[in-house]
Each structure stands twice: as C-alpha cells, then as structure tokens.
Design goal:
CATH architecture: 3-Layer(aba) Sandwich
Shape: globular
InterPro entries: IorB_Oxidoreductase (IPR052198), Pyrv/ketoisovalerate_OxRed_cat (IPR019752), Pyrv_flavodox_OxRed_cen (IPR002869)
GO molecular function, one term: oxidoreductase activity, acting on the aldehyde or oxo group of donors
Radius of gyration: 16 Å
Number of helices: 8
Number of domains: 1
Pfam family, one: POR
Organism: Desulfosporosinus orientis (strain ATCC 19365 / DSM 765 / NCIMB 8382 / VKM B-1628 / Singapore I)
CATH superfamily: Pyruvate-ferredoxin oxidoreductase, PFOR, domain III
Structural class: alpha/beta
Protein name: 2-oxoacid:ferredoxin oxidoreductase, gamma subunit
Oligomer: single chain
Largest sheet: 6 strands, mixed
Distance between the termini: 24 Å
C-alpha cells in the first residue's frame, strides 16, 4: 500500500528541494515513487506544495482529500490551508514559523492566531521550531533539510543512506551543514 507525504510551504523555503531529496532517497531504497509539485506564485512568496507517494506500486502522484499519511508544513498558515488532505489517523509536522502574506503585510488582515491549537484539536500534531534550530546550526536556509529529517524519522525511513543522497545532490561546501540539519530534524520528532 502506498504512503503519501504532503510538503507545503511558501516560495523560497526550499520545499521543492526537500521533496526532491526525499524522492531520490526513496527511489534509491527501491520504492516506486511518484512526485507532483505545484509552485503557484512561489517566486513571489506564494504557496508551494509537493506530493510524494511511495510504495511497491504507485499509480498516481496525486494525494486526494483525506489521503495524506503526513503533512509537513514549512509555515504555520500553510498547515491550516492543507489540513483537509490529512487522513484522520495521519499526522502533521508544523514548523512554528510565520511568513506574512501580501494581505497581512498590507494591513488588510491579521496573521491568524491559534493555528497550532486548531491543528492539535483536529489531528496528531508535532510542532517544531526549524528556524531556530537552523540558525543555531549557522544558516537559516537549512530549515528545509531539518524538516526533511522530521519526515524521515516520522515515516521510519532512517535505514536509507541519506548521507549519500545529500552528498550527491548538495553543493560540496554545504554538505556537512546539511547532514547536521538532517540529523537535527530527526532528533526533533
């Protein structure tokens, strides 16, 4: 039976890179993998989503409503936006991180309060602060790899050679930092 992982965030957060690394690792482990990505207005800070499905045989890359085993949200408001895709017995990993949308920045609306509480009331929710952890590691840009680590641990995929995947797909000068970020993410869940 196929497993479904939904990664969501805002343009510029590295959501697509994280899903590509995940897909490569799953393929390396011998799974049939399908990936679908939607960039939206990602170049302008808009919503980005990536759907990764894997198993012995995967027919479609698309996750239907109520079909995701796990939703990993790089930004809090995106978790709420995509929550209806999570199975009732699924889980959400949400990064406690805010990126205000244009209507919020223009003062037309406020950033919604109580998002984490609302998520927790509906589905098993793990809240992490990947931004803080990435800054502690020395580079806020590795937040996406920290979140990839949470997927690996949450889905029981630790046996895959993630070090090889990172080494093969990340610029050499950033490999060690990204390997530390991956480990940090696995430790956070």
């Amino acid at each position: 039976m196929a497993k479904s992982i939904l990664l969501v965030g805002v343009g510029g957060q590295g959501t697509i890179l994280a899903s590509k690394l995940l897909t490569m690792g799953l393929m390396e482990a011998g799974f049939d993998v399908k990936m679908s990505e939607i960039h939206g207005m990602s170049q302008r800070g808009g919503s980005v989503s990536s759907q990764v499905r894997y198993g012995d045989k995967v027919e479609s890359p698309v996750i239907e409503l109520g079909g995701a085993d796990i939703l990993v949200s790089f930004e809090k408001m995106e978790a709420l936006r995509w929550l209806n895709y999570v199975k009732p017995e699924g889980k959400v990993v949400v990064n406690d991180y805010e990126i205000p949308s244009t209507p919020i920045l223009s003062g037309k609306v406020d950033y919604p309060a109580g998002i984490i509480e609302e998520l927790s009331g509906k589905v098993e929710t793990i809240t992490i602060d990947a931004g803080k952890r990435a800054t502690e590691l020395g580079n806020p840009k590795v937040m996406n790899v920290i979140l990839l680590g949470t997927i690996i641990k949450s889905m029981g995929l630790e046996a895959i050679n993630w070090e090889k995947i990172v080494r093969d797909n990340i610029k050499p000068q950033f490999v060690d930092l990204n390997l530390r970020a991956l480990q940090a993410g696995m430790y956070l869940v």
